[in-house]
Amino acid sequence: MSEPKPYSRVAVTDAAAALLRTLTAQHGPLMFHQSGGCCDGSAPMCYPVGMFLIGPSDVHLGALEVGLADPVEVYISEAQFEYWKYTHLTIDVVPGRGAGFSVEGPTGNRFIIRSRMLDEPELRTFGLASSA
Question: What's this model's pTM, rounded to 2 decimal places?
Fold first, then answer.
């Protein structure tokens, strides 16, 4: 019998995972915070653990397994989560430089969010399915 499919709200592309491994070697353990702020729009900001303090109004979206000893934790502001709670987020990387304080800035790359709507099984798992 196969195990049930685990559902998550956040994922990472292979390219972003590779960059995270490189950045971790330079900066130590990393984490993401997804805000809806003005700096770089809604780009995910990547910080060394402890540089950005998570508050009680931040929501833990998940942990990214990127081939390191420890996963990369991903948080989102509560206000932004309310807008995106029906959405699955994938962290990707593209060439270019963002305007924020994210650690990948000097690399000539920037992290971005790719999103899709949660499917019906995911909606049920997260308690978001409408009762019909």
Answer: 0.89
